[in-house]
Amino acid sequence: MALVVKETPVTEVKKAKSSLDRDIALAEVEKEKKLSFIKAWEETEKSKAENKAQKELSAITAWENTKKAQIEAKLKQIKEKYDKKKAEYAEKIKNKAGLIHKQAEEKRAMVVAKKSEDNLKAEELAAKYRATGTVPKKRIACFGG
Hints:
Elements: H1 10-132
């Protein structure tokens, strides 16, 4: 068996090589173009996701602020109601204290009046006993009777 080597002319090899290089370069450019497109798409999608998340976070913050404002308004309303009731009860207590003081003054006045009346009676009876020279029939318990 004999081996036959066929030689290709050098110009054909150069042509084939430059055509191959061109094809490789075009394939490389196409690959870079696809990668660039994919990267742009990825960044767009990430940007969309970021914007959506920001919108949702803003909505949550707005909802939270609204709820807090409602609660604070309710708390203020309850506090005002409490303060009003507190003032009403304080007024009632002051009125009761004033009424008790008035009743105590009336009772004191009655005791003082009764004491004056009893003293006057005692003086009148003592004067009568002196005038008649008689001794009282009753003994007073507080004087050792």
